[in-house]
Write a structure and sequence with these properties.
This protein is α/β, with parallel strands linked by helices and 705 residues long. It is 37% helix and 18% strand. It has a seven-stranded parallel sheet, sandwiched between helices. A six-stranded parallel sheet has the order 16-21-20-17-19-18, with helices on both faces. A hairpin with a 4-residue loop joins strand 3 (83-89) and strand 4 (94-100).
Length: 705
């Protein structure tokens, strides 16, 4: 990359140290950062109206010559309120423009100057004519004296009279200042922009040049459709999305190529433990579970290391498939490890799996930060057949004798590098990743492009679809009635709150107060509370009592989001449902409907916006996790959907995974094809540098020592 692009933004004309600090707040530290900081929308200021044709309450662009300028005090009782006012004419009419308490403008505007103004026209206070308040402006000539635009560099034709970019800014940095900085950065760095994408790929898909694309995304030519610009689908946006997705897929393709070339373990299980487990299960596997396990077994028998993702909706039975896979490794004399993102989920897996295999003669250890020393001693000598834990498993000091299979639960909470750290605990062990978060195919291709994946798309038989209702504060009595009705039938209920206790900083209802209120309303029922601050042993005790039917209503925070299976619980009430993401609501809803009885989920909403209603309506309309995930992705965007900072994946600044499906597929195909012939990108040094830069801190696959 040209060093000019990596130079500090501070040295761009019009920036300086103070504005550089403001720019760093929005992630702009270098010239390259500025070029990559794209407009969030565009305004069409290209059509200039004649002054007599202006109407009130419309955004308009006008041009004219200044015939008068003055500072006025409109109200003598408020002497501090000063208004700078100019009067312009375009030969057809006259118009006043006013700026409140911006007296420095007196030094900028001079009689005789030609100016362009853009703003909303409103009636003056007498209602006798139109004026513009605080419009954006550009000065087209300098007829009277100098123009000292308050230390701002003068730029022509970027704020008005064209399609104008609007950026997400920060306090202290106006749109006009930001636009000037972007224009200058673009101008001074244009010669430094070089294209890393191979020419044959650009030619094959008729892609515009990189420099041309960056220029037109920031300051589009008149021929570019404003509708396409605002949708992010202009030809130039498509080019930048392609670059981002192509570079992303290069990293994933390189991982996959490296893993395929490595020699792993060719397992040859005899199924003795697996068959014993299946005999003890009170149910038969669904055909989708059987299909997924067959795919895993085929991978395990291959000498190449397995890297497979197993996707399945809440309650589809992924854990049993993961356990069967671990038993296959144990049958062959290897150890297996299961890593979960939280202590409560690791504990839940340990309880469930221990119960299923305790009679098979296996040694299972739980390894978490709070009880790390207890299980470590059995792992290194190989006494532990299966190790279940949190990220404590990958920390220094934990070693395995013969690690053959890694199972990672809820992979989006772990990054590529964490996965690699766990793999280093063995010699190319097989890796199985499972997620209960339904992932749209586009996102799966992006996040897990280096993996093969299986989908369990079938729920166990005798499961009735969960009925979901959206209620508001005034309808709380319906919730109490439904709760009483279910408990009379011998069923149980969850009530989930977003916070443990109330705080002055938020008006959210809390679990502690909620449990007290429910106990007062229903003194004949047993109400218990569970949350993340409780000791693991206490949480386990409460869950055990709830599972055994000793608790009627379990009040909880989101600690029960995953891993808890109580078939007799048929009602889930989620308080402040508008504060939860769709994926999380779907996970919580999946805690009920585990048995054959009809189950219900009530979403209680406090206050509602159009966005929150749209989101919650999706929950009412469907129980299809994949559709919910797609809606969540549409509404929240891919970065927020998974939290790329958490997942350890590079951020996507331009591409939209739902919008750019076709671009993603092309980028994936070309990236995998290129890596096939040039695994370390040695024949494409510029592209190699771009890929290293994109994946920096996440992956070092292209680095040559």
């Amino acid at each position: 990359m040209d060093k000019d692009l990596l130079s500090s933004i501070q040295y761009i004309k019009g920036v300086g140290p103070n504005r550089a600090k403001l720019l760093s707040r929005i992630g702009i530290k270098t010239v390259k950062d500025a070029l990559c900081y794209l407009p969030c929308r565009y305004e069409d200021r290209s059509s200039v109206k004649k002054i007599p044709l202006l109407k009130a309450e419309e955004l308009n662009t006008v041009t004219g010559r200044i015939i008068k300028s003055d500072i006025i005090t409109p109200n003598p009782s408020r002497p501090k309120l000063k208004i700078f006012e100019i009067v312009i004419t375009d030969g057809n009419g006259i118009l006043k423009a006013k700026w409140f308490n911006q007296l420095y403008l007196k030094k900028i505007f001079k009689t005789g100057q030609e100016v362009v103004l853009y703003g909303t026209t409103k009636y003056n206070y007498r209602g006798t004519g139109l004026e513009m308040l605080n419009p954006e402006y550009e000065i087209l000539n300098e007829e009277n004296g100098q123009n000292s635009e308050s230390n701002e560099q003068k730029t022509e034709g970027i704020h008005t009279g064209r399609v104008v970019p609007i950026y997400r800014s920060t306090e202290g940095l106006s749109q006009k200042q930001l636009r000037n900085i972007m224009h200058t950065a673009m101008t001074v760095s244009a010669s430094s922009i070089s294209d890393p994408i191979p020419h044959e790929i650009i030619k094959k898909y008729n892609l515009p040049g990189l420099k041309e694309s960056i220029q037109n995304v920031h300051f589009p030519e008149a021929s570019v459709s404003i509708a396409e610009l605002n949708k992010g689908t202009s030809l130039y946006h498509q080019r930048l999305s392609f670059d981002e997705l192509f570079t992303f897929q290069l990293g994933l393709a390189a991982i996959k190529k490296k893993e395929i070339s490595e020699r792993g373990i060719a397992f040859s299980p005899d199924s003795r433990l697996i068959n014993k487990l299946l005999d003890r299960l009170p149910f038969k596997l669904t055909s989708a579970q059987q299909r997924a396990f067959n795919e895993i077994l085929d991978d395990m028998k291959s000498p190449a290391p397995m890297n497979r993702l197993i996707q399945g909706d809440v309650g589809s039975g992924k854990t049993i498939i993961a356990l069967m896979s671990m038993l296959a490794a144990v049958e062959c004399g290897y150890q297996a490890a299961l890593m979960a993102p939280t202590e409560i989920l690791a504990e839940q897996h340990f309880i469930n799996i221990h119960r299923l295999v305790e009679n098979l003669g296996l040694n299972i250890q739980l390894l978490t930060s709070s009880r790390k020393t207890r299980g470590t001693n059995a792992v290194a000598p190989g006494d532990a057949d299966i190790v279940i834990g949190t990220h404590a498993i990958i920390q220094e000091g934990v070693s395995f004798k013969k690690l053959g299979l890694i199972v990672i639960d809820e992979q989006h909470r772990f990054g590529v590098m964490q996965r690699a750290m766990l793999r280093k605990k063995g010699i190319n062990p097989d890796t199985l990743i499972m997620t209960a978060t339904p992932i749209p195919r586009t996102l799966a291709l992006t996040l897990y492009g280096d993996l093969d994946y299986s989908i369990i798309d079938e729920l166990p038989p005798n499961r009735s679809p969960i009925i979901t209702r959206l209620l508001y504060e005034s309808q709380k009595s319906q919730i109490y009635k439904l709760m009483q009705d279910e408990i009379k039938k011998g069923r149980q209920a969850y009530v989930v709150y977003p916070v443990i206790e109330e705080s002055e900083k938020t008006d959210l209802k809390s679990a502690i107060n909620g449990a007290e209120s429910l106990q007062k309303i229903s003194p004949n029922l047993k109400v218990e509370l569970i949350h993340g601050r409780m000791k693991p042993a206490d949480r386990e005790e409460v869950m055990k009592e709830f599972k055994n039917g000793g608790i009627h209503i379990l009040v909880s925070t989101t600690v029960i989001e995953v891993g808890v299976d109580v078939p007799n619980a048929t009602l889930m009430v989620i308080i402040h449902a508008e504060r939860f993401g769709l994926a999380q609501l779907h996970q919580l809803r999946g805690r009920v409907g585990r048995g054959s009885s009809q189950s219900f989920c009530v979403l209680l909403c406090y206050g509602s916006t159009n966005d929150s209603k749209k989101r919650l309506d999706v929950m009412v309309e469907t129980t299809d996790g994949f559709r919910i995930a797609e809606e969540d992705l549409n509404i929240r965007g891919s970065g927020e959907f998974f939290g790329t900072k958490q997942s350890g994946m590079p951020d996507l600044k331009v591409a939209n995974l739902m919008r750019d499906v076709k671009i993603l597929e092309i980028a994936r195909k070309e990236a995998f094809s290129l890596i096939e012939g040039d695994p370390l990108l040695n024949m494409h040094p510029q592209l190699k540098t771009a890929a290293e830069d994109f994946w920096r801190g996440k992956l070092e696959i292209f680095k040559t020592a």
